[in-house]
Specification:
The chain is an alpha+beta fold. The chain folds into two domains: about 60 residues; about 190 residues, no CATH class. The chain is built from two helices and 16 strands. The chain has a six-stranded mixed sheet with strand order 1-5-16-15-9-12, with no helix packed on it. A five-stranded mixed sheet has the order 4-3-2-8-13, with no helix packed on it. Helix 1 packs antiparallel against helix 2. It comes from Amycolatopsis eburnea. Keywords: Membrane, Signal, Transmembrane, Transmembrane helix. This is ABC transporter-associated repeat protein.
Length: about 280
């Protein structure tokens, strides 16, 4: 066989081997996790790429940054630790004198000050009357309660993890509210929350996310791994990047096989022709 044909066949074989090799899949760039332990933050709905989404407005940056909930852990540091006051009205927090970590309704230096709002300009025309804030479940080492300082100092409960779920409250449109976030034990908590509203056109806008809070000393980033999973009712009808890359590799392999077969056929035909001429 002439040398040039041997070279062509060798190149075709290398092409086939490369085509059959597994194609690398580009890894998705992970979102930057952010732990917020001091200053002012608000949680609320906004329109993101045309979709109603719950996000956290982080006012510890200049300008303020809206962050997706999966990227955020709110940290109730050790300075937030208090004792449950005496009085029957505080029994929902535990026994008098028991420890409680409190992110307060009124701002305190060195302690996170979380609130919630419906003031983002992107939803100004989306909310008819109010936004419903629904709490589906709470996962964590202790009890969670959200309450407001009511008239004459009597607390008004909003959420309490010892009560049946789901629980809900209303947030008036274009409002900004703060409350007391109370936790009875240190560790990682996950609040399964939903915010929804009836738009003026009658459509329901809704999003359900997991809010992560870490209480006390330790590694607050551990709360990123503490989220409970919710299985979707149906798988999305999309092709993964890995599947696309694999199917593309097989198309290249098929093309290489065809080219190799054509070259072998040409070599054999030329060889026979040479023999016939001799």
């Amino acid at each position: 066989m002439p040398r040039r044909w041997r070279v062509i066949l060798r190149l075709a074989a290398l092409t086939l081997a490369a085509a059959l090799a597994p194609s690398p899949v580009a890894a998705a760039t992970p979102a930057q996790p952010t732990v917020i332990a001091d200053g002012h933050v608000d949680m609320g709905p906004r329109m993101v790429d045309g979709a109603w989404k719950i996000q956290v407005r982080d006012d510890t940056t200049q300008p303020a940054t809206w962050r997706p909930l999966p990227d955020v852990v709110l940290h109730a540091v050790s300075a937030a630790k208090r004792e449950v006051p005496t009085g029957a009205e505080y029994a929902f927090l535990g026994a008098p004198g028991a420890p409680v970590w409190l992110l307060p309704q009124v701002q305190r230096p060195g302690v996170l000050w979380p609130g919630w709002n419906t003031q983002d300009p992107s939803i100004a025309g989306m909310v008819d009357r109010e936004v419903t804030w629904r709490l589906h479940t709470v996962a964590g080492p202790g009890r969670f309660a959200l309450f407001l300082n009511g008239n004459f100092g009597k607390p008004q409960e909003v959420f309490d993890s010892t009560r049946p779920f789901p629980q809900e409250t209303g947030i008036e449109k274009a409002s900004h509210v703060h409350g007391n976030w109370a936790f009875s034990a240190a560790g990682a908590y996950t609040l399964d929350i939903e915010m929804l509203t009836a738009a003026p056109d009658g459509k329901t806008l809704s999003d359900r996310e997991q809010l992560r809070i870490y209480v006390g000393d330790g590694q607050p980033a551990a709360a990123f791994a503490a989220a409970t999973s919710r299985t979707p009712t149906s798988a999305p009808a999309t092709v993964s990047q890995e599947d696309s890359a694999t199917s593309g590799g097989w198309w290249y392999a098929l093309g290489a096989v065809i080219i190799l077969a054509a070259l072998v056929f040409a070599v054999l035909a030329r060889t026979r022709r040479g023999r016939s001429d001799s």
